[in-house]
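Hi D.,

Good news: the full-assembly prediction came through. Inputs first.
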Amino acid sequence: MPPENTTAPAGRTLPADQTLLSVRGLQKVYETDDGPIEAVRNLTFDLGKNELTCLVGPSGSGKTTLLKCIAGLLEPTSGEVLLDGKKVTGPPKKMAVVFQEYGRSLFPWLRVAENVELPLRNAGVPKGERRERVAEALESVGLGHAAKQYPWQLSGGMQQRVAIARAIAYQPEVLLMDEPFAAVDAQTRADLEDLVRSIRKRLGVTVLFVTHDIDESVYLGSRVVILSSSPTVVQEDIEIDLPEDRDQLETRALPRFTELRHHVYEQIQKAKQGFRPDDARV
Ligand code: ADP
Ligand code: MG
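Then the structure:
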């Protein structure tokens, strides 16, 4: 079934040589006992290499659905996802995902270091290198001391840091994060935001970060893609023209930060009230 609305404004697209990941005309309709639910109608945008893009939208706007389609965990109804120009048909090796429900994403019978090591083992990374990468990743999330503990011995925030360490140790080219900090305290959250920015810089990884926190999207992103309410289209795709070096206090105190934040806030309010870019054209 082709998307009904082919005039919806697309997100930003890029020349092929700058693009790592492309979402093209993505539509997802869930078949349920009560009939079809069109969660995502028509999404098109590109992620550039080494870019940190935040995705915001009202609850139920299909953010998780989109991420699952990108991760190859869910098949789009129409449209496609391309990684390095190749269609994604299953979980790509170059990708790692950090989900919101970290409690369920760690194996309770494995120690912290073993949880982080598992994907490396599955990828056939030699033992010595595995050890190094695990130690380094745990260190970078401030959990060097917790390697031998079990996940259930840690707080929620620490468990989420284990999930992030696991993704970093894997050294993916694309890191997808679905509201990863929703359940951690404010201080940890600020630390983890800065960690994500530094990982992107250090490892050159391309990040797609889903959040419903507007301040977080502006602070973290080099771009913010705003989704409409469901059935979802791209409402706006804006560049965050803040200085590259960001600081929790200084950046958030910049007048430009406040302007961008206002702008995103207004757009989300509009989306929540059911405004859709295509409606405006009718
Ligand atoms: P978000 O992550 O933005 O909150 P979701 O992607 O979880 O949004 O959900 C988008 C829409 O799709 C919602 O209306 C939700 O109820 C519906 N949905 C999500 N998963 C399923 C599913 N497995 N079966 C049927 N409907 C679903
Ligand atoms: Mg979600």
